[in-house]
Structures are given as structure tokens and as C-alpha cells.
Specification:
The structure is a single chain. By secondary structure, the chain is of the alpha/beta class. The protein has 19 helices and 25 strands. The strands form six sheets. It has a nine-stranded mixed beta sheet with strand order 13-12-14-15-25-24-23-20-21, with helices on both faces. A seven-stranded parallel beta sheet has the order 5-2-6-1-7-10-11, with helices on both faces. The protein has a three-stranded mixed beta sheet with strand order 16-17-22, covered by helices on one side. Strand 23 and strand 24 form a beta hairpin. Helix 15 crosses helix 16. The longest helix has 17 residues. The radius of gyration is 25 Å and the shape is globular.
Length: 538
């Protein structure tokens, strides 16, 4: 029978519930257990797909095409496992399902209420995510006391009564603030947060205490007594240089004891390889500087998966990857050389809309002409094709119809129909709604023999990577591009997946998002090769 660990948060948001949940999952996974994770988001959006990156951070895409919260990306990166749509759901999805069932007569004329109907829907989704795993770690977004979270709290309380006591555990992540003027750490916010949990009917079995200062023994004793939690289950969670240190910190804090005691099992993780990778992150032998050209630099969480992928590659190459943040709009103003001239490699990330596109084009031209290693992801590949078409083919008005629907040379265009990753035909036009009309999820591609793409991925014929985009490279220009020296080195069912430049030491553009499949223990091949090339160019 699956054992459930529920992770809730108190006092305020952004305390690191996701990293806490992922770290506990890592410890259990490295102990030999079959582990999965679930993120519950209390907002009413069906998914974060239509939210601005500046509003919500990155949208993470699962292999089966679900647009999810960025915490799901952290889960995959920590436990080295591919998750699916059932590993994440929102209030919007829950209410959508309940209302759809009611409209279809599924409730046989009953009055639909939060209890039991909404709560039952939540419980069904939680049980479905368990899927015969030894452990399912569930993170509930938001903060205890939020009105949006009450139906989910009730579901957690109900599950506790439906299962044996040793099969569910409640972990509460809370803040222990330091009041500088008083020179004291304060436990009162956590006490009130736990009181609110208990009022709802949930008793925490463990407290993970986020703090900027080391917690003294007497304060831990006070927390244990006032919150009715075992003394061994008060876990300090201080700031870490790397998020991948957190599982190691938890083990040092003695988290294995309350976990083992509560579930009455032996938990003995083998963290040797993990420890080596973390040491490579903290004290690397080499370093490189990569110019990261983007337009969402006000909130770097917009590029969370890509930043983490570079860290993974650095850990495996014993290299510190310094990210030189380059605002594409600033490049438009002062030119590429002044902004990115001292970088060892250039990365142009994905994005939507025409803002900052000219600066990205200048960065790509600089990389091409100066033989600097280049990796373009999604829009970064599309802009590489536009730049090549304009400056090498001489098609001065070549563009994407995303930016100019009347361009005479639409080298990037919107296909009317395509087969999605589940094998169904999808139709999309300019009038299609934004949500759910992109090419999403995992698609196969075949690297061209002897290409940089194949050298990175290996000699197998078919590989899979994830997508999140609406526009495609136009195959009508394939022949002209290849005659001029830009090779199509990856294709998927006739769609262009990767391009390279023949007379360049390493210039690769990919339509997919390789960062979505990069994990600490298994970095993505093309990003790993890109960092190797940056090292070689240093």
C-alpha cells in the first residue's frame, strides 16, 4: 500500500515547499523506494499555460504535454524520473471536472457541494497519482489559511482517516523569522500556523523550519512542546548555496529518524554520487561564462529549467557555469559586442512575441560571424533561421508570421494542422485560443548522421524531447538554406527540429526544449555538449 506524505506551508509563500518535498523524495528514492510526487495548485486557472512568465515563472511541460507549475520540474530534476499530467492538478481542473460530470448527469440529480463532491474529486486525483508507488509526496501550494486551499486541506484530513495511521504523514514548512532589533528568533508565527492547521483537523508530524540563523536547542524544544511535535521531528532548513545540498542537510539534521519511526521502516539512502555532484557544483575545478540572451530577466524563474540544466552540466564537467544575463532589448540599443563580447558561448532562449527579437537576431549574427559556440532553443532556433535567411540568403524581409503576418518570406510559419504526441490531429489558426493550441509534450526526432546533434545524443536512431510552441520552421525554405550552408540536422514527421551551420565550429538550434529533460544525475545531452564547447572555446 502506498504511503502518503503531505507537505503544507505556513506563514508566507516561497519558503521552499517544493524543494523540501523533492529533497525528501530524493532521500527515499536513494534508499531504494519507488517514489512519485504530486503538486496541487489552488488557483482557478486550468493550468499555468496562459500566465505571463513574469506573473508565475516558468511553465514546465511534462512528457505527455501537460503545462504545469515549475515545481514539477524540480521534482523531475531531483528524483530523475519522468512525471505526467496526473502528477499535477489545479482548482480549475477540479471544478471543471465536477461541473462537467454534473452537466452530464453523473451525480444523479444531487445538489453539488464542496463536501463531498469537490473533496471526493480531489481525493480521486491523489489516489490516481499514487499508482502503486511505495511513496507519494504531495505538495499543496499556497499557505495554510488561504481560502482557496480549504477544500484541499479537507481532502488531506479525510485521507488520513481512510488509511492506516502509519500510511500518512503531514509535514509543515514554516518560517522562523529573526528580528534584528530584538536580536531574537521568533517561534510565534509557526505556532499560529500550526494552530490553524489543527483547527482544520490536521496534526503535523514534522516541522521543517526555514531560517536564516541556526536554531538553538532550547528553541527546538519550545517548538516541539508548543506545536505538539516530536523533538526529533523539528528539522532546521537554513539557506543553502545550492538547492541540491538540501537532501544532504536534511540527513545531517536527522530527518531519517522521524521518517523511519513514523512509517516503521528502515530508511538508509546511498548519497555518495549525489554528494560528489554537489561538491562539483560548490567547488568546481574550471569555469566558463555563457551569454544568456533573453527578455524575461526581471524574473529569472522564467528560465528555471534552463538555469538548472546548465548547473547539471557543470556538475558533470566539474565546471562552474557563470551566466552572463544579457537583456535582448539592451543589445538592440548598444550592439552585441559590448554586451556579449567576452563570453565563451552564446545561448538564446525561448520566448513569445516580437519584443526583444531584434537584439536576439544581433546576438545570433555575432555568434555566427565570430565563430562563438551557439545554442538556440525554440525561438532561438527560429531566429537563427531568420537571421541566416536575411544575411546569407539575402531575403531581407524574411520573418516569422508571429512578428509579421504579411512577410513575403515566412521562413517561420503557423501550420494549419499537425499530429499531436497522442496521435490525434490538431487544427490551429491565428484565431485559435492561446491555451492548449501549442505543440506540447514529447515528440520523436532523428538526428542527421555525423551532425553535432548526433554526436551529442549518440548513435541510436530515435530520440524524444519536449515541445512548447505554436510556430514552426517552414520546410519550403529547406533546400535554399542547405545550399547556403545551414543544414537541417533533426526532423520529426516532416517538421524541422534542429539546424546547424556547416562552416561554424559549433552552431546548433533546436525547436524543442532540452532543458525539460535535464536532471542532476542525467544532464541533457545537447546542453552538456554546449557547455563542453564553451569550455573548449575558453
Amino acid at each position: 500500500m502506498t504511503k502518503f506524505i503531505f507537505v503544507t506551508g505556513g506563514v508566507l509563500s516561497s519558503l521552499g515547499k517544493g524543494i523540501t518535498a523533492a529533497s525528501i523524495a530524493t532521500i527515499l528514492k536513494q534508499s531504494g523506494f519507488k517514489v512519485s510526487m504530486l503538486k496541487i495548485d489552488p488557483y482557478l486557472n486550468v493550468d499555468p499555460g496562459t500566465m505571463s512568465p513574469l506573473e508565475h515563472g516558468e511553465v514546465f511541460v511534462t512528457a505527455d504535454g501537460a503545462e504545469t507549475d515549475l515545481d514539477l520540474g524540480n521534482y523531475e530534476r531531483f528524483i530523475d524520473k519522468t512525471l505526467t499530467a496526473k502528477n499535477s492538478f489545479t482548482t480549475g481542473q477540479v471544478y471543471q471536472s465536477v461541473i462537467k460530470r454534473e452537466r452530464e448527469g453523473g451525480y444523479l440529480g444531487k445538489t453539488i457541494q464542496v463536501i463531498p463532491h469537490v473533496v471526493d474529486e480531489i481525493k480521486e486525483r491523489i489516489y490516481a497519482a499514487a499508482d502503486s508507488h511505495d511513496f507519494l509526496i504531495i505538495e499543496l501550494g499556497g499557505t495554510v489559511g488561504d481560502i482557496e486551499g480549504l477544500p484541499f486541506m479537507e481532502s488531506l484530513r479525510a485521507i488520513r482517516h481512510e488509511l492506516p495511521k502509519t500510511n500518512t504523514m503531514n509535514i509543515h514548512v514554516s518560517l522562523i523569522p529573526y528580528i534584528k532589533a530584538a536580536g531574537e528568533l521568533k517561534t510565534k508565527p509557526t505556532q499560529h500556523s500550526v494552530q490553524e492547521l489543527r483547527r482544520i483537523g490536521i496534526m503535523p508530524h514534522m516541522l521543517v523550519c526555514r531560517t536564516e540563523r541556526e536554531l538553538p536547542k532550547n528553541l527546538k524544544d519550545k517548538l516541539a512542546l508548543s506545536c505538539d511535535v516530536e523533538r526529533t521531528a523539528i528539522i532546521e532548513a537554513g539557506d543553502a548555496q545550492s538547492i541540491y545540498q538540501v537532501p544532504l542537510h536534511f540527513i545531517k539534521e536527522g530527518i531519517l529518524t522521524p521518517l523511519s519511526n513514523h512509517f516503521n521502516i528502515k530508511i538508509k539512502p546511498n548519497m555518495e554520487r549525489w554528494d560528489t555532484l554537489v561538491k562539483n557544483i560548490l567547488v568546481p575545478q574550471k569555469e566558463v561564462t555563457i551569454a544568456f540572451v533573453g527578455k524575461y530577466l526581471d524574473l529569472k524563474e522564467s528560465y528555471k529549467s534552463l538555469i538548472e540544466a546548465l548547473i547539471h552540466c557543470g556538475a558533470h564537467l566539474n565546471t562552474k557555469v557563470n551566466i552572463h544575463w544579457c537583456d535582448s532589448e539592451r543589445i538592440q540599443d548598444v550592439g552585441a559586442y559590448d554586451i556579449i563580447g567576452n563570453s565563451d558561448a552564446i545561448l538564446v532562449a525561448g520566448g513569445f512575441g516580437h519584443r526583444g527579437a531584434r537584439g536576439k537576431l544581433e546576438a545570433i549574427k555575432y555568434a555566427r560571424e565570430n565563430k562563438v559556440p551557439y545554442l538556440g532553443i525554440c525561438l532561438g532556433m527560429q531566429l537563427a533561421i531568420i537571421e541566416y535567411a536575411r544575411n546569407v540568403l539575402g531575403l531581407e524581409e524574411a520573418n516569422s508570421i508571429e512578428f509579421d503576418k504579411d512577410t513575403p518570406d515566412p521562413v517561420i510559419y503557423l501550420i494549419d494542422e499537425f499530429i499531436d504526441q497522442s496521435g490525434h490531429k490538431q487544427l490551429r489558426t491565428h484565431k485559435s485560443p492561446m491555451g492548449g493550441t501549442m505543440r506540447l509534450g514529447e515528440y520523436p526526432f532523428e538526428p542527421l548522421k555525423d551532425s553535432n546533434l548526433q554526436k551529442a545524443y549518440g548513435n541510436e536512431k530515435i530520440y524524444y524531447e519536449r515541445h512548447r510552441h505554436r510556430y514552426e520552421a517552414n520546410p519550403a525554405y529547406k533546400e535554399r538554406l542547405e545550399e547556403a550552408g545551414m543544414t537541417i540536422t533533426g526532423q520529426s514527421n516532416g517538421l524541422i527540429e534542429a539546424v546547424e551551420i556547416k562552416d561554424h565550429p559549433w552552431f546548433v538550434g533546436v525547436q524543442f526544449h532540452p532543458e525539460f529533460t535535464s536532471h542532476l544525475e542525467t544532464p541533457n545531452p545537447i546542453i552538456l555538449e554546449f557547455v563542453k564547447q564553451a569550455n573548449a572555446n575558453k
